[in-house]
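Section 4.2 – Deliverable D4.2 (structural model, holo form)

The reporting period included a commitment to supply a predicted holo structure for the target in complex with iron/sulfur cluster. Inputs used:
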Amino acid sequence: MKKSINRRDFLRLGAAACAACPFTTATALAAAGDDDSRFVKEAMHYEKLKDLRIRCLLCPRKCEIADRERGACGVRENRKGTYYTLVHSRSCSGLRPDPIEKKPFFHVYPGSLAFSLATAGCNMTCRFCQNWEISQFRPEDRDSIYAPPEFLAKSAKRTGCKTIAYTYSEPVIFYEYMYDSAKFSREQGVGNVMISNGYINKKPMVELCKVLTAVKIDLKAFTEDFYVKMCGGHLKPVLDTLVVLKEQGMWFEIVVLLLPGMNDGEKEIREMCQWIRKELGPDVPTHFSRFYPTYMVQNLPRTPIKTVEQARNIALECGIHYAYVGNAPGHPGEKTYCPKCKNMIVDRVGYHVGRVDIRDGKCTNCGNPIPGLWG
Ligand code: SF4
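Output (structure tokens):
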């Protein structure tokens, strides 16, 4: 269920934040009203049905929508039998450089910056969402900035970002915006990374792979029960997306947020790691992150360090070469080790990257190839 908010306060705070942002321009900040036609573009993946109805083919929900209705994500609307996104170029969060380690990507240009943005909306309803204040709202309930693809590419370049990151909420639901931006900025020499729940159908994902540089997928658990009860989604489509990414040769990393007593059982983690090793291979970086109480899940404690350590150990035992702990700054499990000679080859503390002992994609000590994007 969508939450109500004090819109006046939000707009006031949002406007102040935008005005303070050194990366925005007067043009980009120009009026962004609810009915602004600049945000409305025909959707890319849907089919027309009888009686002005349509079926959205973007994500596994496959919403069937009557005229003047919206899909479950709240950002796509049927207008007289044509389906539209309402959030093209409609950024409501970020528009600033973030360390790429924050996403987290550990094998993608370590120490670089990613120009980050999001729109309102999501196609899941995770009860523990860390960005629920944007993901669980409709676009008209959030302050928005007109930030078209050209603006994103220019801003990324001006702020020294190697990539643009589609992040915070769920980029699948602002697919057309991400696609157009990635296509444009790629031609300008800026990379594009998607931080996603992986809840997307095969065809749109394959098309997107042609313009993206790397993808991070949140694998929320390895049980259908958790996906249904805690996320309002299903496990199988997410696993299918991981396989598609592998088939497409896309660089991707997996993050698993461990909630105490919910999805951190040894058996579940082992089954997950065995699946990753078997279906995706040993070289997919797999991050086990600590949960902090948030949104609707305030009754659980922070994930103990030993839980993420144990999950990382299980992953290594299962043959995953690059297993990490997350949200544990300073932990040795944040660093990258060569699976052959065991030397530390990327030193990290939180979002800070120190020494990188990888040259031409190989460990400088033993010459073992280290998969990733290091250039
Ligand atoms: S993207 Fe939105 S409208 Fe389309 S199927 Fe998914 S939830 Fe429904």
